[in-house]
Write a structure and sequence with these properties.
Blueprint lengths: L9 H9 L7 H12 L3 E4 L6 H13 L11 E4 L3 H14 L7 E4 L5 H10 L3 E4 L1 H9 L10 E4 L2 H6 L3 H9 L6 E6 L4 H10 L4 E4 L10 E7 L5 H11 L5 E4 L3 H13 L4 E4 L5 H12 L5 E4 L1 H4 L9 E4 L6 H8 L9 E7 L4 H11 L6 E3 L36 H11 L5 E3 L60 H4 L6
Parallel strand pairs: 1-6, 1-7, 2-4, 2-5, 3-4, 5-6, 8-13, 9-11, 9-12, 10-11, 12-13
Antiparallel strand pairs: 14-15
Helix pairs in contact: 2-3, 3-4, 6-8, 14-15
Bound molecules: adenosine monophosphate (AMP).
The site of adenosine monophosphate has 14 residues, from helix 3.
Length: about 500
């Protein structure tokens, strides 16, 4: 299928051609005709699938007729982070270059005055993070009663960040009759219920199974002692042909600590997290995009959805606490069909987190060892103390899983890709017999991973306040613990 088959105007088609796109991506192919028809859309798609263009392109055409009135935006795009909002704003610039559309970007950390001035002129597209939007609404600077199209992007991330109450409030301020486009990388029940509450008879589109990492990302897991992770990272960066990489930490303060340590070692590195002032975040990102910085140590929120072309590597300095973050992190590489490499450094105590990730992605992360460092073993704590398996330990090269459908194929591919200096893929040992609980007296207990088993309960996040919730609007982060969102209380068609 070609872009010209989708019903877009010649001006938008020209902008698409100028962008160098030859063919629509699956989400564009499926969503654009429905958006143009005025239908609600529920899109289950990750970043990197071309989902931004799937809503911006048709919106530009819909907006081509009509004019915006002062302080009354005609369309609203809600994004969880400033960086994503800025990216969507750029997309409107690129694809709308042959149209005369006004847009405003309302994000925390930027001057209110400039944003208000833009609103006063009338905007066709308003792109906002929830906190700043509510702030401006409360100051009486904006009226949402003329919004014809609402886009809720990265809904699962909004949920993670505690923004759902804000989003519900915003939606309550919009006209009931409107078109709603709702995107989420994953579709857990809370998100599904939210979609049921916000959308009317939506066209449902799912372009990749939820939580499937891009096939072009070669993944590897190195298990080392916790105090050797930094050394392991240095060795990996040196032995891999790293063009540019994101290095993820779970905590904001570790982002700074690791960045300083790498700098001291002579690496070309900068930090990115939600506590940094917005101008500094923007500048750092720009320098990274322009290849002026090779390594960016970052938190999940700051780096969520960043679209940086041709990024060669992702390093998980910490195993993510939430398994879904693993998919988002490694999805920063391997974009647009290029091969990317994603290394995860795990300390022995990260066993349960690794287990949750492997259950989510439906396959083991191939183990590797780092030259010069001893491979450690993952430890899997028992969650209920009822003897769910005193399994075996997993050395770097262990074979904990039953073979999944793609195992042979993927590991073959990864075997080749890891034949670089410094990194060795372990040969899996012969499968061990299931351990006999009565005869395994060792104090550290290990549970083999069972494919397809119910995911392990999500462990508590580390110290609240240190996890990066983005600092997007300098606002309080409200979680479900404090607030019962209305959509959860309502009964829906799906129960
Ligand atoms: P997104 O999923 O919206 O973050 O898009 C990921 C990347 O894919 C962006 O850099 C887009 O410029 C690019 N992209 C979007 N649509 C296409 C297309 N049809 N062909 C090639 N690249 C595309």
């Amino acid at each position: 299928m070609n872009f010209s088959d989708l019903g877009l105007s010649p001006e938008v088609l020209r902008a698409v051609e100028d962008a160098g796109y030859k063919q629509p991506t699956p989400i564009q192919e499926q969503a654009i005709p429905y958006v143009l028809m005025g239908r609600d859309v529920l899109g289950c798609a990750q970043t990197g699938t071309g989902k931004t263009a799937s809503f911006t392109l048709p919106m530009i055409d819909i907006l081509a007729s009509g004019r915006a009135r002062a302080r009354m935006p005609r369309t609203l795009v809600i994004e969880p982070t400033r960086e994503l909002a800025a990216q969507v704003s750029e997309a409107f610039d690129v694809y709308g270059k042959h149209h005369k559309l006004n847009q405003a970007l309302l994000i925390g950390g930027e001057s209110f005055t400039d944003q208000e001035r833009k609103l006063d002129r009338g905007v066709d597209v308003l792109i906002a993070t929830p906190g700043r939007l509510i702030d401006l609404f409360e100051r009486g600077k904006i009226l949402l009663s003329d919004v014809k199209i609402l886009v809720i992007d990265e809904a699962d991330r909004m949920l993670d960040m505690g923004f759902i109450p804000d989003v519900e409030r915003i939606v309550g301020l919009l006209p009931k009759i409107r078109q709603t486009l709702f995107f989420s990388a994953t579709m857990p029940p809370e998100i599904r219920r939210l979609a049921d509450a916000f959308l009317m008879n939506p066209k449902e589109i799912s372009v990749a199974p939820p939580a499937s990492p891009a096939a072009t990302v070669v993944q590897a897991l190195a298990v080392v002692a916790a105090d050797e992770k930094r050394d392991a990272l240095r060795r990996l960066i040196r032995s891999e042909n790293v063009k540019n990489a994101l290095i993820f930490c779970n905590r904001k303060r570790d982002v700074d600590i690791l960045c300083r340590a790498l700098k001291k070692d002579g690496f070309d590195v900068a930090a990115l997290h939600g506590d940094m002032p917005q101008p500094k975040r923007t500048e750092t990102l720009e320098r990274f995009r322009n290849n002026e910085i090779r390594l960016l140590v970052c938190s999940d929120v700051a780096a969520r959805g960043l679209d940086i072309q041709g990024m060669s590597h992702v390093f998980n300095f910490d195993v993510p606490i939430h398994a879904e973050d693993y998919v988002h992190r490694i999805g920063r590489t391997g974009r647009a069909g290029r091969e990317g490499r994603a290394f995860t450094l795990a300390a022995p105590e990260d066993g349960r987190f690794v287990q949750a990730i492997e259950q989510l992605i439906g396959r083991p992360i191939p183990p590797v060892s780092v030259d010069g460092l001893a491979a450690a073993a993952l430890s899997f704590e028992e969650s209920d103390g009822r003897g769910r398996g005193r399994g075996r330990s997993r050395r770097g090269g262990g074979k904990p899983h039953a073979a999944g459908p793609h195992r042979g194929e993927r590991q073959g591919q990864q075997h080749q890709s890891h034949q670089r200096q410094g990194v060795h893929r372990h040969e899996p040992p012969r499968a061990a017999k299931a351990p006999q609980p009565a005869r395994t007296p060792e104090p550290a207990r290990y549970a083999p991973i069972t494919m397809g088993a119910a995911p392990a309960p999500r462990p508590a996040a580390p110290e609240a306040g240190d996890r990066d919730h983005g600092g997007d609007d300098g606002q309080r982060v409200v979680g479900f613990g404090d607030h019962m969102p209305a959509f959860l209380a309502r009964r829906t068609a799906r129960g």
